[in-house]
């Protein structure tokens, strides 16, 4: 009901009327009592107004005294689920935001109908989403523009302070968050709600750090962002370049850590030259299983470069600050299809390593021997040979390749290609055998090595490399190759620890053409190369522990040695050939090679010694060769007198020389010089000679004349002239080479000169095992005048193995020179008891009329009654 204002009547009756009748909700009528219009107002202060059982106060009542209630005083409760603006009559607002967050906007309490002291309590009754309490424009809630109620039962109770500051104040709350406003202080700067951290405990913090930098204090109140070392973390994949390495080192990083969940690429070769101490690390995974099966995880370093190696690590200047050293790849998977190398450790670098890496070359580049090269001996490739093949597509313009031969295989360098030929071919090391165009025995492929470790830069040896717990795999090609780039500046002192290899379709898994000190601990091969697991064409390989099994069912060796001054030493390693195919050998020694078994080797199958200058040393009594058969008719086999706990090999197929070094000492020998308390036996009919024994010497030796070897003591020669009679015929003299030697010159003495000699058709040449080792320059001037000559071998020195060698002389002209000869001339005693082919003095090749060349192989020898003198120095 409308009320008159001022309200007539006594105060008590007026209040009773208000409480009893009650204005309707939203009514804005206000009853005002004052002493000016109601003299009885003071009585209302103390007067007790009787109430009904309950009364509803649905209006704004201003009470300046005390309101006493003997029962409950209740407030209006409103439930909302969407944006809401409270009314003057609201008191408690239950806000349920389950359907979505919304805002409760407090009214401008300066409006008519509101009074200072207006209160609201807003409660978030939902279980999801946020209820935001916001003030009207220009007003604040406890100094902030909003209050957030983000959890169930979070609430805020606010009260309006009046018209002076027109703000709402929080007088009670629970689990609320708010956005402060105003200027920030302390360690913060700028203004709320988004201040900036300016200090940490009073220490100034500079802005804009670079990636990987940390905050470093420079004093008690100052700091800087600085690089403190470690690996730079790279993610998302992409290219890896040498420029990135340079930038990282400039920034103070010690390497990269590559996110293993991504693929990284090398598209134009990663050239690491002149870099020191840098690590590329990840947690990529990859491995080789049985039968050359490979598996990898998600991430990898993918080499897509063509015509060049993928990762090249070398030093153009191996000394000083420009050197390359300490480059490490760790826990990386490096794959690609390259006719070159996926990873290439080149010349001059030091202390570089692969650790826990999987390296694979998936290249399928290969070809076959064409009929034009069928039957050609690879020994004829001496710089100008041509190898005919089906196609050279995919091969580099120059480099190294492997070819199957009748003697397992050979490494061949070439300088050029056409569509179907390799030109400028040179056989590396001591590779031998004939090429074949027969299907199944005609494979030709590039090194395509997963890792090639060679010089690559002339005269810069690479040293001190380590490979730990790594797997190397190739499709066609060797898994690991050593010494291909420059056999004169090769890799030395490498350590291969816990290594597995596989060549799925290649001739060899591991091949070496130069270098020494390559030590292998716990080496395993998981493939069936058609040639052999390891092939040594020059250098030294030393194995200890593991299994180098060739699992092929038709052919294939564990070890193949065929090279000048090559050695493969094997200690406590298992080798076998599963089915004894063709060639039926676990290991083959050819040319000047040496295979040494040491420790508890366990070999089965068949071993072949294929040259008079080759040695198979099985003299360690700790070896086990009970299932090994020895074949061959030339060379040297060293055995122990007894084996324990194993047993010796079967030698019924062996007809060459067998010795038993160190089986026993004959302490009764009297021809030992110098005498010693530990006598070194010279040997008897029962005991083999000890390697350290010394015989007394009573005659002049070659060394007394400054020579390595000579045909006979020149003091026993005659001065009778016996000229070389037939032009274009090679006259040969056999010499004993006592131990492996480097030969510099061929020495001879003329007692009479020849006449009208043809320039560039008079030479001296050196052969061993039927192969040419070296030739002198033209001797037509020397051959014309009597005297002693020491003719240098062109390009020498050349390496000669211990054993027999032949020196050959030939001339073209009217009269040949007269060489110094022995007294036996004309009697036939010079070759007493020797077969013609083994004569000390004889003739061999004929028709030698081509300028500046010599036959690559020594022809059949015919005995000669004249004992000519020759020597080597």
What does this structure look like?
The chain is an all-beta fold. Helix content is 3%, strand content 39%. The strands form 15 sheets. It has a 19-stranded parallel sheet that branches. Strands 22, 27, 30, 40, 42, 44, 46, 48, 50, 51, 53, 55 and 57 form a 13-stranded parallel sheet that branches. Strand 14 (199-200) and strand 15 (203-204) form a beta hairpin.
Topology:
Elements: H1 11-21, H2 41-46, E1 77-80, E2 92-95, E3 102-105, E4 119-124, E5 131-134, E6 146-149, E7 155-160, E8 168-174, E9 176-178, E10 182-183, E11 188-189, E12 191-192, E13 196-197, E14 199-200, E15 203-204, E16 213-217, E17 223-227, E18 231-234, E19 238-239, H3 242-250, E20 255-258, E21 263-266, E22 270-273, E23 276-281, E24 286-288, E25 294-296, E26 300-303, E27 311-314, E28 325-330, E29 333-336, E30 343-345, E31 353-355, E32 358-361, E33 367-368, E34 382-388, E35 399-405, E36 408-414, E37 416-417, E38 421-427, E39 443-445, E40 451-453, E41 462-474, E42 480-482, E43 491-503, E44 508-512, E45 516-525, E46 532-536, E47 540-547, E48 557-562, E49 567-571, E50 574-575, E51 587-590, E52 594-598, E53 602-609, E54 615-618, E55 624-632, E56 636-639, E57 650-654, E58 657-659, E59 709-710, E60 717-718, E61 731-737, E62 741-743, E63 745-752, E64 755-757, E65 763-768, E66 771-775, E67 787-792, E68 798-800, E69 803-810, E70 813-815, E71 818-819, E72 821-822, E73 841-843, E74 862-863, E75 871-872
Parallel strand pairs: 1-2, 2-4, 3-5, 18-20, 19-21, 20-23, 21-26, 22-27, 23-28, 26-29, 27-30, 28-31, 29-32, 30-40, 31-41, 32-41, 40-42, 41-43, 42-44, 43-45, 44-46, 45-47, 46-48, 47-49, 48-51, 49-52, 50-53, 51-53, 52-54, 53-55, 54-56, 55-57, 56-58
Antiparallel strand pairs: 4-7, 5-6, 6-9, 7-8, 10-12, 11-13, 14-15, 16-17, 24-25, 33-39, 34-38, 35-36, 35-39, 36-38, 37-38, 59-75, 60-72, 61-69, 61-73, 62-68, 63-67, 63-71, 63-75, 64-70, 65-66, 65-69, 73-74
């Amino acid at each position: 009901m409308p009320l008159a204002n001022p309200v007539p009547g006594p105060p008590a009756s007026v209040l009773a009327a208000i409480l009893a009748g009650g204005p309707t909700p939203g009514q804005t009528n206000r009853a005002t009592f004052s002493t000016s219009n109601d003299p009885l107002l003071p009585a209302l202060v103390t007067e007790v107004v009787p109430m009904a059982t309950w009364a509803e106060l649905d209006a704004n009542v201003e009470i300046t005294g005390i309101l006493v209630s003997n029962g409950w005083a209740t407030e209006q409760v409103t439930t909302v689920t969407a944006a809401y603006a409270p009314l003057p009559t609201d008191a408690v607002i239950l806000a349920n935001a389950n359907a979505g967050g919304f805002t409760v906007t407090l009214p401008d309490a300066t409006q008519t109908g509101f009074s200072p002291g207006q209160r609201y309590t807003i409660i978030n009754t939902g279980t999801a989403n946020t209820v935001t309490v916001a003030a009207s424009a220009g007003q604040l809630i406890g100094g902030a523009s909003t209050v957030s109620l983000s959890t169930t039962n979070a609430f805020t109770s606010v009260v309006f302070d009046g018209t002076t500051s027109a703000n709402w104040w929080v007088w009670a709350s629970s689990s609320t968050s708010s956005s402060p406003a105003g200027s920030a202080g302390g360690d913060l700067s700028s203004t709320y709600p988004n201040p900036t951290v300016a200090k940490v405990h009073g220490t100034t913090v500079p802005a804009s750090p670079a990636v990987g930098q940390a905050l470093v204090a420079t004093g008690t109140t100052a700091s800087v962002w600085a690089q403190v070392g470690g690996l730079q973390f790279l993610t998302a994949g992409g290219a890896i370049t040498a420029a990135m390495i340079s930038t990282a080192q400039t920034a103070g990083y010690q390497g990269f850590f590559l996110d293993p969940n991504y693929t990284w690429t090398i598209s134009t070769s990663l050239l690491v030259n002149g870099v020191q101490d840098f690590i590329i690390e990840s947690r990529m995974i990859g491995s080789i299983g049985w039968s050359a099966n490979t598996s990898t995880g998600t991430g990898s370093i993918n080499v897509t470069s063509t015509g060049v190696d993928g990762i090249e690590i070398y030093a153009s200047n191996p000394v000083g600050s420009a050197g390359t050293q300490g480059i490490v790849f760790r826990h990386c998977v490096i794959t690609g299809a390259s006719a070159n190398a996926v990873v290439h450790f080149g010349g001059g670098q030091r202390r570089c390593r692969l650790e826990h890496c999987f390296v694979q070359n998936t290249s399928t580049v290969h070809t076959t021997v064409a009929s034009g090269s069928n039957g050609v001996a690879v020994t004829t490739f001496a710089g100008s040979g041509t190898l005919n093949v089906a196609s050279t597509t995919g091969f580099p313009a120059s480099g190294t390749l492997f070819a199957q031969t009748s003697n397992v295989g050979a490494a061949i360098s070439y300088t050029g290609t056409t569509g179907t030929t390799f030109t400028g071919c040179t056989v590396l090391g001591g590779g031998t055998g004939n090429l074949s165009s027969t299907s199944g025995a005609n494979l030709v492929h590039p090194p395509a090595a997963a890792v090639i470790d060679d010089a690559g830069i002339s005269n810069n040896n690479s040293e001190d490399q380590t490979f730990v717990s790594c797997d190397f795999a190739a499709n066609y090609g060797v898994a690991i190759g050593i010494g291909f780039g420059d056999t004169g500046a090769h890799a030395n002192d490498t350590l291969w620890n816990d290594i597995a290899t596989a060549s799925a379709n290649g001739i060899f898994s591991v091949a070496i053409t130069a270098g020494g000190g390559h030590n292998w601990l716990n080496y395993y091969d998981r493939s069936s190369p058609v040639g052999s697991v390891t092939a040594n064409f020059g250098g030294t390989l030393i194995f200890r522990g593991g299994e180098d099994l060739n699992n092929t069912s038709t052919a294939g060796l564990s070890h193949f040695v065929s090279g000048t001054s090559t050695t493969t030493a094997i200690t406590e390693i298992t080798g076998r050939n599963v089915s004894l195919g063709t060639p039926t050998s676990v290991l083959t020694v050819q040319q000047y090679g040496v295979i040494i078994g040491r420790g508890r080797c366990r070999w089965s199958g068949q071993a072949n010694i294929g040259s008079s200058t080759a040695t198979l040393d099985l003299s360690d009594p700790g070896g086990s060769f009970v299932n090994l058969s020895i074949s061959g008719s030339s060379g040297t086999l060293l055995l122990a007198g007894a084996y324990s706990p194993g047993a010796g090999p079967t030698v019924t197929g062996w007809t060459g020389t067998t010795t038993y070094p160190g089986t026993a000492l004959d302490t009764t020998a009297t021809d030992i010089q110098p005498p010693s308390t530990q006598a070194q036996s010279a040997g008897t009919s029962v005991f083999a000679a000890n390697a350290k024994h010394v015989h007394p010497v009573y005659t002049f030796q070659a060394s007394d004349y400054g020579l390595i070897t000579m045909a006979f003591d020149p003091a026993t020669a005659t001065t009778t002239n016996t000229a070389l009679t037939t032009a274009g015929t090679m006259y040969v003299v056999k010499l004993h080479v006592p131990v492996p030697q480097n030969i510099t010159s061929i020495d001879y003495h003329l007692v009479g000169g020849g006449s009208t000699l043809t320039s560039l058709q008079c030479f001296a040449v050196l052969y061993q095992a039927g192969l040419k080792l070296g030739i002198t320059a033209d001797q037509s001037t020397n051959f014309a005048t009597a005297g002693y000559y020491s003719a240098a071998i062109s390009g020498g020195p050349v390496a000669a193995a211990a054993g027999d060698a032949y020196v050959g002389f030939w001339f073209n002209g009217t009269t040949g020179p007269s060489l110094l000869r022995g007294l036996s001339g004309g009697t036939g005693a010079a070759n007493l008891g020797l077969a013609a082919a083994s004569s000390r003095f004889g003739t061999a090749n004929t028709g030698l009329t081509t300028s500046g060349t010599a036959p690559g192989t020594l022809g059949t020898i015919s005995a000669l009654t004249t004992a000519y003198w020759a020597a080597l120095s």
